[in-house]
């Protein structure tokens, strides 16, 4: 089984989006450099950020996200983001009407079932869990091995918390820290 990583860009006050689900300046770092991060050529970061992010992206086999994220992104038009092979959507509802059954998206009820499906699909590759409510639930259930944050120099004041509605203490190991343009990349192992 591959490692399970909770991940997102986050404001210094701990939010992954504002109250209206808008990331605002949280993705500005993805346009702050001159090294293309993907094939689109639109996303350009510093060499330092590229050296940190690209190898990580290349190891991801599956992303787990909640139905809310799936809905607000319009299901990424049926193509998993960043070249990822599969997306597992945690939801109590079926796939949207008219959804292409051949698209590499899997609609699963509950975090345990989502993790089992993701690990089956990922094999020894990374299972990425989107931060927010689903990520927080998985952290609370002891299913997350590592927490990654791309901390941006922005204060949102309120919004969607990185850890969702986690209400218990969880300890992390000391961080690995890498500074890019307009971002601080943090990586924490979850203490067991």
UniProtKB/TrEMBL annotation:
<dbReference type="InterPro" id="IPR024072">
    <property type="entry name" value="DHFR-like_dom_sf"/>
</dbReference>
<dbReference type="GO" id="GO:0009231">
    <property type="term" value="P:riboflavin biosynthetic process"/>
</dbReference>
<dbReference type="InterPro" id="IPR002734">
    <property type="entry name" value="RibDG_C"/>
</dbReference>
<protein>
    <submittedName>
        <fullName>Dihydrofolate reductase</fullName>
    </submittedName>
</protein>
<feature type="domain" description="Bacterial bifunctional deaminase-reductase C-terminal">
    <location>
        <begin position="89"/>
        <end position="170"/>
    </location>
</feature>
<dbReference type="Pfam" id="PF01872">
    <property type="entry name" value="RibD_C"/>
</dbReference>
<dbReference type="GO" id="GO:0008703">
    <property type="term" value="F:5-amino-6-(5-phosphoribosylamino)uracil reductase activity"/>
</dbReference>
